[in-house]
Amino acid sequence: MAASPVFDIQDVKRRMAGAIASFKHELGTLRTGRASPNLLDPIVVEAYGQTMSVNQVATVSVPEPRLLSVQVWDRAMVQPVEKAIRESSLGLNPQTEGQVIRLRIPELTQDRRKDMVKVAHKYAEGAKVAVRHVRRDGLDVLKVKEKDHSMSEDEHVRAADLVQKETDKHIAEIDQLVMHKEKEIMTV
């Protein structure tokens, strides 16, 4: 007879927190009209025969609220980094001075802001789906444990209630984060 799976509420919490951390990172890559070093995270550069993210070949800093400064470490990588930024979907126009690339962050139009809000909501839905998958996994383990009599029906109900409370808490946190991001994006 196979050993019954182990139910651990701490594992459920940790996995749900991981979904939220991933969601926060995705939100950080959305442009809000202010400069953020995370803005360049999705951009990859052909470097040394492989693809690397910009932060692996340069230091990204924010000297002013609407300006990004990209200090490329290797002089040979300046052109590839500039090209990758120019060809990205961010709509940024790099200006190169030696090994430093400056990126002015333009004002967002109202239509562009609405598009960003839609993307934020899409990210939120993805995070909610991830949290619900964790809930389903936890509830499946509980069903198996009850079925093979290693857990009573009462214990199953109590544990399932804990899992649902964690799910509700994490879904509410996602809603709060997306609401805050929407407000940030729509603020002119």
From TrEMBL:
The molecular function terms in GO held by this entry are: ribosomal large subunit binding
Keyword match RNA-binding: no
The biological process GO terms on file are:
cytoplasmic translational termination
Domain Ribosome recycling factor, which positions?
A: 23-186
Keyword flag Cytoplasm:
yes
Q: Which UniProt key words apply to this protein?
A: Cytoplasm, Protein biosynthesis
Annotated PANTHER family: MITOCHONDRIAL RIBOSOME RECYCLING FACTOR PSEUDO 1 (PTHR20982:SF3), RIBOSOME RECYCLING FACTOR (PTHR20982)
- The protein in question is named Ribosome-recycling factor
Protein source organism: Phreatobacter aquaticus
